[in-house]
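Notebook p. 47: complex prediction with zinc ion.
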Amino acid sequence: MKTLLLFILVLFSSQAMAQQAPLLPLVKSSIKGVNVYGKTVDNQTRCQHWHSDLDVIAIKFKCCEKYYPCFSCHEEEADHKPQVWPKAEFDTKAILCGVCGSELTIADYQASGNTCPNCTAAFNPGCSKHYHLYFETVD
Ligand SMILES: [Zn+2]
Ligand SMILES: [Zn+2]
Ligand SMILES: [Zn+2]
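Predicted complex, structure tokens below:
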């Protein structure tokens, strides 16, 4: 009798494991003690909007000095308009590598060639198309 019960239990738990974990938002994730806000889905800064292998950075917003994984996360969760970092402040640490937890300055990040200088994790090169949402650009 006991063995049968155990068998059923094992069967149940293996079925539960086989189910794909849904991408539910964490309320807040923390990477090496740095809080990341918005709709994060893991502890490497991936969010509901951007969650490929390469989406492992969060950006600190000038307006609230809080890290968010992306612009949409800030738009949906923050209660204010976003502000971009002016060029004069590009030496501010405002990029968080979700893999190793190190913080890069905006200048470091832009010069990084989409590779974390600390842990060599690859960053999404597509992010550069969205620089204007976070940083002052020349136009
Ligand atoms: Zn903000
Ligand atoms: Zn997002
Ligand atoms: Zn890193």
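Notes: The pocket of zinc ion (ligand 2) is lined by residues 38-39, 47-50, 69-70, 72-73 (CB under 6 Å). The CA atoms of residues 113 and 125 lie 8 Å apart.
Next step: compare against the earlier run before touching the bench.
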